Amino acid sequence: MYQLCNAQQVYAKGPDTEISLSNADRLREAHADYVRRMKALKQVAHSQPAAYTREAPLTGTAAAAQKQWPELSRSHAIKIANSWTRDFTPAATAAWWGAGLNHSEVSLAQVLEELGIRPEHLPAQIRGETILYRLKEGVQPERVLRILQTEGLM
Known about the structure:
- The protein has helices at 2-7, 21-47, 60-68, 74-85, 90-99, 106-115, 131-136, 141-150; strands spanning 125-126, 129-130.
- The chain is mainly α.
- A two-stranded antiparallel ribbon has the order 1-2.
- Helix 3 (60-68) packs across helix 4 and helix 3 packs parallel to helix 5.
């Protein structure tokens, strides 16, 4: 109340000092206005969505996925990262993506890895076609392995 009195330029010598009716009315109105503003602030504070809390930036494989495919939503990038990081390090994942595999081709990358075919083999051209092209056209990974072995690339 002391601050309210000072703000309204009503000065009393002590708590028992009487003030004029006009000063009392002014203080009553100021106090009511103060109470209304505080209630409004509380309502605004409670009605604000949690949008003020920023999500942490993506890191690791999720960040790499969103960088490689900017159209991905945050949640989709996280799902992709989870599916790839079960079997691959972030560096290996980036190598497969950089070699041309899509984010949905984790199972193909697993099979290729098991056969010993590495991301650096995918751009190799054999008889005018890359290994990646052959895989995308449906050639079985085992057949691709035989081609690489026949050509002396493995």
